Amino acid sequence: HEGVDQAVLEPVARGYRAVTPSPLRSGVRNFLRNLRGPVIFANDVLQGEAERGATTAARFVLNTTIGIAGVFDPAASMGLEYHDEDFGQTLAVWGVGAGPYLFVPLMGPSNVRDTTGRIIDSVLDPLSYLEGDDAGAFRATRGVLTGVSVREQLLETVDDVRRDSLDPYSTFRSSYELLRESAIQN
């Protein structure tokens, strides 16, 4: 993973940052977040979080329409703050343990529960059911854009860990576990 990251992912993310102005990167991030709206809504509902589900639904409708397919985030200025939910969190709320820590090459840190959750999230994602000549290309483009956008957002964090940590693997594992527990607890 480190070899691929240093040879391909990091340079692509740095290039993306260098040639793409911050407002455009923000628009891409907003668009990708908006595409996750139905999955987040499903997980809000499955967790029994009616108020969060209503916020997610309202954000999705407002950002898809007024926000031009989610490129802009007018819902935030209306007090409807973004939150993320996934099926790994839903399983945790239902009492399923995390299982062993995994570092999935090219996907990053995870655990058995969250890896299973990623698979279920793909089933919950309406875009998984797109058909037509360009459906596969659209899904692939979304995947690549998401990977580049996320890696660009993590440039400084990964640099800091590589520079300051005696054991980067342990640091990533501890950070992942803390961040996931915080996300589960909302």
Notable traits:
186 residues, 10 helices, mainly alpha, 69% helix
List the helices and strands and how they pair.
Elements: H1 2-19, H2 22-35, H3 37-46, H4 50-65, H5 74-77, H6 87-93, E1 101-104, E2 108-111, H7 112-124, H8 135-153, H9 155-164, H10 168-184
Antiparallel strand pairs: 1-2
Helix pairs in contact: 1-8, 2-8, 3-4, 6-7
What would a concise description of this structure say?
The protein has 186 residues and is mainly alpha-helical. It contains ten helices and two strands. It has a two-stranded antiparallel ribbon.
Describe what you observe in this structure.
The mean pLDDT is 95. A hairpin with a 3-residue loop joins strand 1 and strand 2. The protein is 69% helix and 4% strand. With 186 residues, the protein is mostly helical.
CA gyration radius, whole angstroms? 17 Å
Q: Give the overall silhouette.
A: globular
- The helix/strand series, from N terminus to C terminus, equals HHHHHHEEHHHH
Tally the helices: what do you get?
Answer: 10
The major beta sheet can be summarized as: 2 strands, antiparallel
Structural class category = mainly alpha
User: End-to-end distance, in Å?
Assistant: 30 Å
What order do the strands of the largest sheet run in, or round the barrel if closed?
1-2
- The percent range for strand residues is under 5%
What is the average of the pLDDT values?
A: 95
Segments where pLDDT lies below 50 for 5+ residues?
Answer: none
The count of strands amounts to 2
How much helix, percentage-wise, in residues? 55-70%
